Structures are given as structure tokens and as C-alpha cells.
Amino acid sequence: MKKQLPKNVRQIGNVSDSSKIYVEDYVDTFFNQLCDKTDQMPIGAFLVGEKVQEEDQDLIYIYGAIRMSEVTMKGQDIHVQDTVWKNACEVCKQYFENAEILGWFLTVPGQPLEANHNIKKIHEKFFSREKSIFVLKNTVDREEQFYIHKYQDLMECGGHYIYYEKNPLMQEYMIEKNKDFAPEFTENVSDEAVVSFRKIIRNKKTK
Predict the structure, then answer these.
(1) 34, 111, 179 from 40: Cα distances, Å
(2) pTM for this prediction
(3) What angle do CA 18, 22, 16 make, to 5 degrees?
(4) Please, what is the Cα angle at 136 between 141 and 149, to 5 degrees?
């Protein structure tokens, strides 16, 4: 069956690439929570979801994220060990059985938004295939940059979409792994109600 495009979406930036990236709202919230927890050391996560091919366009849906068990720094270089990847694969099977790991997320305190040689080297190690995703997020102003792997390089994306749907898989992961990551809304209601409720919560937090 043809996958239906999300009904409730919010565009971030200029989406003009042939590959369109859709990030579910709970995952976007999870990114911000990881930024809140970043102190002196970087924090990473693996991106979980699926790719859908429609005519000449790739639709990339990211509806889950698995926190890396460890990310280390030596000087200015980031290091992710093979054991971290193996652990994430097991967690993915447990919580996101039919999904695949599509890329990774990283937030580093005090570091500029740039996919440098060190970052590209890590990406090539775990995600050498075409159309894999890398997300880099600033801990201060929450500015983020999306990259897609093309032509054996990480190419900066002009924009992406945030979409709003009931997401029980990510809810379960956030609740069971860490109560601090528990989503604020878990009842079985319509997508429209989910969107409205999350917006109200965000407005209250902002105020």
C-alpha cells in the first residue's frame, strides 16, 4: 500500500531537495531534551524510521531516535565505538521492530555547526550508503542543520518537515528508557488534538 503523506506538517527552512525529510514531533522534542542534558561532553542518537520511494523522489520518515550509550571526545575529535552501534541495533529491534537506522544526531557543547572531517569519517563508518541522514544541533540557540549523504559526501539540506502523528513506539521508548524523556501526552486521540495539545504545552513553556 502507498504510504500516505502526513496531514499535519510544519516546514522548517527551504525544502527544495529531491529527498524530503520528515521528522516526527516526539523525535524533535527528544533532540531538544538531549541538548538540555549536554554539559561538557557530546550526546548522540541514532535516527530510526523508513525510506519510501515515490516516483523520482525519496521520502525519509524519522519517527524514532535511540540515544547513544556513549560518545567520547579526544581533543576536538568525536569518537563512537562499534559497541555503541551494536547496542543501538538491539534497542531498535526491541522498540522499533520494523524500522531501520537511517542516520545519526549529535549535539556538542561549544562547537560550531559544521560537518567537519571527523564527523564525515564517523558517518562513512556507519552510514556509507546513499541518502543516510546526519543532524547537528547547537546547544545554545537550538539551531540545527540537516545533512544527507550523497556522492560520498555529507551535503547540507535546505530544510525539512516536522510532522505530527500518534507515535506509540517513540512514546514507549521515551517512557521506559528515562522518565525525564517521557512525552507529555500519551492518550489515544486524534492527530489534530495531538497537534493542538503540543502547541499549548510549548506556548506555556515559552512563557
Answers:
(1) 13, 11, 22
(2) 0.83
(3) 30
(4) 150
* Burial class (CB within 10 angstroms; exposed 0-12, middle 13-18, buried 19+) of 26: buried
pLDDT tens digits, residue range 78-119?
Answer: 999 999 999 999 999 999 988 999 999 999 887 666 889 999
C-alpha triplet 52, 3, 153: angle, nearest 5°: 15
Closest CA to 4 of 48, 52, 65: 52
Q: Which of 3, 19, 9, 11 is nearest to 156 (CA)?
A: 19
Phi, psi of 159 (to 5 degrees): -175, 175
Q: For residues 101 and 183, give the distance between their C-alpha atoms in angstroms, rounded to a whole number.
A: 22
171, amino acid identity? Q
pLDDT digits (tens, 9 = 90+) for 130-180: 899 999 998 877 789 999 999 889 999 989 999 999 999 999 999 887 665
If we measure between CA atoms, which residue out of 105, 107, 89 comes closest to residue 97?
Answer: 89
